[in-house]
Amino acid sequence: MNNIAILGASGYTGAELVRLIATHPEMEIKALGADRKAGLEYGKVFPHLRHLDLPILQKIEEIDFSGIDLVFCGLPHATSQRVIKALPDHLKIVDLSADFRLRDPAEYKKWYGGDHAALELQKTAVYGLTEFYRDAIKPARLVAGTGCNAITGLLPILPLLKAKIIDPDQIIIDLATGVSGAGRGAKEAMLHSEVSEGFHAYAIASHRHLGEFDQEFSKAAGQAVTVSFTPHLLPQNRGILATIYVQGDAKTIYETLVAQYSDEPFVYVLPFGEAPATRHVRGSNYCHIGVVPDRQSGRAIIFSALDNLTKGSSGQAIQNANLMLGLEETTGLQLAPLFP
Amino acid sequence: MNNIAILGASGYTGAELVRLIATHPEMEIKALGADRKAGLEYGKVFPHLRHLDLPILQKIEEIDFSGIDLVFCGLPHATSQRVIKALPDHLKIVDLSADFRLRDPAEYKKWYGGDHAALELQKTAVYGLTEFYRDAIKPARLVAGTGCNAITGLLPILPLLKAKIIDPDQIIIDLATGVSGAGRGAKEAMLHSEVSEGFHAYAIASHRHLGEFDQEFSKAAGQAVTVSFTPHLLPQNRGILATIYVQGDAKTIYETLVAQYSDEPFVYVLPFGEAPATRHVRGSNYCHIGVVPDRQSGRAIIFSALDNLTKGSSGQAIQNANLMLGLEETTGLQLAPLFP
Amino acid sequence: MNNIAILGASGYTGAELVRLIATHPEMEIKALGADRKAGLEYGKVFPHLRHLDLPILQKIEEIDFSGIDLVFCGLPHATSQRVIKALPDHLKIVDLSADFRLRDPAEYKKWYGGDHAALELQKTAVYGLTEFYRDAIKPARLVAGTGCNAITGLLPILPLLKAKIIDPDQIIIDLATGVSGAGRGAKEAMLHSEVSEGFHAYAIASHRHLGEFDQEFSKAAGQAVTVSFTPHLLPQNRGILATIYVQGDAKTIYETLVAQYSDEPFVYVLPFGEAPATRHVRGSNYCHIGVVPDRQSGRAIIFSALDNLTKGSSGQAIQNANLMLGLEETTGLQLAPLFP
Amino acid sequence: MNNIAILGASGYTGAELVRLIATHPEMEIKALGADRKAGLEYGKVFPHLRHLDLPILQKIEEIDFSGIDLVFCGLPHATSQRVIKALPDHLKIVDLSADFRLRDPAEYKKWYGGDHAALELQKTAVYGLTEFYRDAIKPARLVAGTGCNAITGLLPILPLLKAKIIDPDQIIIDLATGVSGAGRGAKEAMLHSEVSEGFHAYAIASHRHLGEFDQEFSKAAGQAVTVSFTPHLLPQNRGILATIYVQGDAKTIYETLVAQYSDEPFVYVLPFGEAPATRHVRGSNYCHIGVVPDRQSGRAIIFSALDNLTKGSSGQAIQNANLMLGLEETTGLQLAPLFP
Asked: What does the alpha-carbon distance between residue B299 and residue C171 come to, in Å, rounded to a whole number?
């Protein structure tokens, strides 16, 4: 049994970690860290988990990490780097924030502002895109989970850039995401009255996950790749769908993705010409990818759907933690999606 | 390992059975029965389950039941009784339809119209309200799952009538249910455009689950009990909340319910004065019950929340099947609710 | 043309007033008051109204009231009484807050806490339930709009208490309301992720609108009436449905309501046995009422549906303002509901 | 006063016509045509309009058209052409189906299958994109309303192709639409349980509105234009958002659109860099357009939002009918959007 602490447990990614670990046979939650909600029973903060026997929420500085094996850190960026820097050396760490995703400090500063407070750690952190960094994740001390939008675009496109079968200058990622990705903070723009029965784009051509796209796509292509990326906010809680327009042969793209993912436990390439739906991956660690030829030959539309709280953050985090702890990668993650 | 067949697998209760059995360690699905959709892969009918290795949908008459241990029957009422009557004797059966819930053929005819085609089976069927009929369910061949609205009202009220601590003539069950309870049939009234952003009552003072209330409440009270019951349709997919107005002492009611359910694995009585929410049981087999005193002394408001597709039908069905197969009652059912 | 100022224009009731006045032929908006958002164009605060030519939002203390005829005041309670107390004498005022609804200062203190800062005004204010106080509203200087839940229960029940055809000790008002009633303030509990796909009761047996029920029901019945009242929060933006359980003859109740409302422009009594839906009054000033006999003779279930932002607050406010300004009561209010 | 008949009045576009005409000062509904629902009161079919005094639904063949001035035809395509062919010559007709949108019979056959049954009428019909065909619409007998998705893409892109400021070979229209566009027919795929909490693309690279894009874009550009077009289904009832990726200078695009639409009553170009939301045009005849520069110079992202049932069909139809009847174009159409 591996002893687990979750920092930032009062947010949605924290609750999703608790939900998934509740039926994970090899992990046991020993500490739950929070700030404002320290002192509360977890079931008061998240009543859907009231049936679980869990530790009381604590201030991070009050947690005894001596018996802990691995820490999930679901804190806001900037806070995360300061907290992680101070954690004892024996701990393995999976960070769900943006703090350790970008290799280049200049890129970090460009997208997130301010200097990085833990540059040494940033150097050693491994990017948590399991399907591409599995070997580096296994022995890592610190793994940086991907952005939820980032992984939705990276999984279908990275293999195509590596195989050099799409034009790297003509990639458009149009994406729609559920509301839970914005977290549990009280913001006017995320009220039910503001979100339901409507749809709009946000952070157009300026979303921070562009830093991850630039880093990973450029590395894969062996040249600078600058994608277009337009996220939209959906009137639903969970789920991201990326609709990606590329120039390349649809059938070749399809076959490349099938070859890439045929042995992956969580990435499914649908039959040629079919497109996925976010509702069919809700609450699960699966990613569904579809390839459809466009009207014009030489162009294709690629779809990618996953749950932002599961494969997009907390499920992915557990997948990486499984590897870091020497467990079977899929342990505790094969829950079927919830539909309807 | 117990071999399972699911009849009526192309409906929502069928899909929920498949979802739950997917991570059940002691059940394996060997046959999936459907009518119009026979011949299709299950993942075509329910793409959220495409990652599972499942049998092709078959016509019921083409299923080989010889190696099957237990059948879940999710067919419409009236159809269900004819199909079950013809099933081989060696099969254990959990029926999710209304066909075997009512003991009295006259009551069946009153609420569902027409004569019952399997009166002998009706006599031997056990009502699937696990928390009250556990001993009879274990050795039963045929268990009749409760109505999803019925169980939501029965769990909080039955113990109070048995204890004679509420007035049996003054029980009002006001209830709101999600859309999935209406099934997957294409009906104008269940279109997204018709259901979302709205709320209304239906089947007022005439809902068929009244037959179950009358049967079970009268038996518990030792006298005829006629409740008021008003169901409403919610603009959400899953979840039932019953708000029940009774005349009796709130604290006594609370203590009676705590005593009744303190050892039950799936029924939680919240702290006195707290009320549950459907979103906190979504996708799980849990039922949350709350008791709040009314303004007027001697009156109380009791709340009960569960997921209509899980504790209200398919989760309950597996709970009963576990008992019938000699398994631990909770096997495969301890998934945490999905929130948000 | 009547010159209008709206104070508290940055909230939902303010926006609803602007929406309705936009097509009102006898009112023109001359000033819009706000606090934090003062200085902004109205279209920045509510982009759905960007096509209108409106004044810039101002601090209330900066508004020149000299040319204004009537003020709508959509401020929070407690603030409202202080602001209204300081308004020039020539102004007619329709207050949408709770500050002037209760006649008895002790009742005000009981439900809202603290002493009332404008007791003299409180004495002269008229309760804005148009259908019952029309004659007093016409000459009034200050009209206090009803609570949105309150009016939903008052319209169907007041005539029955006056006619003494229901038992005043056995009235249960079960009610469900959309999220917009909670306003535009950023609260965790009102986030889309917290509200959608779920249903729960709140302020059980303690909601402040009970003060209005007690005042009006007791006056109508000529004796103290204490109702049970349980509000629930719906995953929808607009609309309230009250489901009211009474003891009395359903047919007599129906006929009493038909007689009461046959000449009313905004209150519709549906055919006997039919029940309304909130989606069928959305965005309109209509209230739909239905009466259905219960299973037990001598009991009835009464339904009442209206839009909390329209008939429940801003539409009602304009209806009252029309009367106060000597206009036809229905002016600008006959917009059809928006469905789907 | 102009006498109006609505054929296909039992669908959503029919109800939207009735809703809008209810407050239109120069139109009066004299006949409502339906098929299966003939004989019913309109308020039984659409309870939100029960307060209106309307004719009973009739079979089309039973309608007396002698006193009618203008017919709105909201029938399914293929049916529409047969019915319209048989209408008396004195009638002006606004068709909301696809039957008369395409000028070229071969294109009609390609996208809709089968031969056109009213080729002579097809030749004379005017495409109902008011902002571009106003002069031809005024004297027309038959105007063919645009597809709801088509108009959402045409309004922002047509002026750019005419001005030759974007690359006609690199236009990608990514679009998301509400459910009401699919009509009121009972289809499994449009059930609340299937649509809510999810998002997916449909009719990828094959949607029939491509016929309209090809026709209008090619005509405007003076060369064959083949766009990419991917519609998605939103979990909301009303509203379309098009996100359009083009190659051209963002500022030039913005200025061209501002110049094109500055005098238009229903098309608003937002300040440079801002993007619209569907919720801010709900229930109105307005279209909001925004232009945002992409990360890469020489590329822009254009957004267009409108209500599919209003500006996308029934509002547009009334706008055209106003012109055909010699009325002010905006008559009855200046209702403000409904938010929240």
From this structure: 12
Q: What is the mean pLDDT of chain B?
A: 97
pLDDT at D123: 92
Confirm whether pTM is higher than 0.95.
yes
Q: Which residues of A touch B337 (CB under 8 A)?
A: 19, 48-49
Q: Where are the domains of chain B?
A: 2-124, 148-307
Q: Which of D50, D282, D307 to mutate to test the interface with C (most CBs of C within 10 A)?
A: D50
**Which option is the CATH number for C148-308: 1.10.3720.10, 3.40.50.720, 3.30.360.10, 3.40.50.150?**
3.30.360.10
pLDDT greater than 90 at residue D114: no
Percent of chain D with pLDDT over 70: 100
What percentage of chain D's residues is helix, strand, coil (to nearest 5)? Answer: 35, 20, 45
At A139 the three-state DSSP class reads: coil
**Nearest residue in chain D measured CA to CA from B193:** D237
Round to whole Å and give the CA distance between A197 and D309. Answer: 14
Which pLDDT score is estimated for C23?
95
Write down the pLDDT at residue A231: 98
Name the residue of chain A whose CA is nearest to D238's CA: A197
**Orientation of helix B148-162 relative to helix B210-221, angle to 10°:** 10
Q: Is the torsion defined by CA of B33, B38, B42, B46 positive or negative? A: negative
Give Dmax over CA atoms of chain D in angstroms. Answer: 61
DSSP string of D250-268, one letter each residue: HHHHHHHHHHHHTT-SSEE
CATH number 3.40.50.720 is the correct assignment for the domain at A2-124: yes
| pLDDT by 10-residue block (mean), chain B, 340 residues | 97 98 97 96 98 97 97 95 97 97 95 92 96 98 98 98 98 98 96 98 96 98 98 98 98 98 98 98 98 96 98 98 98 97
Which residues in chain C have Cβ-Cβ distances shorter than 8 Å to A16? none
Q: What is the ipTM of this complex?
A: 0.96
**Cα B338 from chain centroid (whole Å):** 19
- Of the candidates A23, A180, A340, which has its C-beta nearest B237's C-beta? A340
Cβ-contact B216, B158 below 8 angstroms:
yes
Ranges of residues in chain C whose predicted pLDDT is under 50? none
CA-atom Rg of chain D in angstroms: 19
Nearest-CA neighbor of A242 among A192, A183, A311? A311
Q: How far apart are CA B284 and CA A51, in angstroms?
A: 11
- The segments of chain A whose pLDDT lies below 50 read none
Amino acid at site D3? N
- Chain D residues bordering chain C (beta-carbon distance below 8 Å): 12, 15, 18-19, 22-23, 46-52, 179-180, 196-197, 237-238, 268, 270, 276-277, 279-284, 286, 288, 334-340
Tell me what percent of the residues of chain D surpass a pLDDT of 90: 99
Nearest by CB to residue B334, choosing from A23, A50, A270, is A23
pLDDT for C202-231, tens place per residue?
999 999 999 999 999 999 999 999 999 999
Fold of B148-307: Dihydrodipicolinate Reductase; domain 2 (3.30.360)
Report the pLDDT value the prediction gives residue C276, as an integer from 0 to 100.
98
Name chain C's partners: 3 or more CB pairs within 8 A.
A, B, D
CATH of C2-146+311-324, picked from 3.50.30.60, 3.40.50.720, 3.30.465.10, 3.40.50.450, is: 3.40.50.720
Residues of C in Cβ contact (< 8 Å) with D47: 276-277, 280, 288
Report whether A308 contacts A282 (CB < 8 A).
no
- For residue B145, give the DSSP letter: P
- CA nearest neighbour of B247 among B186, B308, B157, B311: B157
Residue of D nearest to A177 (CA): D199
Instruction: Look up tokens 């059995």; give the residue.
Output: B21
pLDDT computed for residue C114 by the predictor: 87
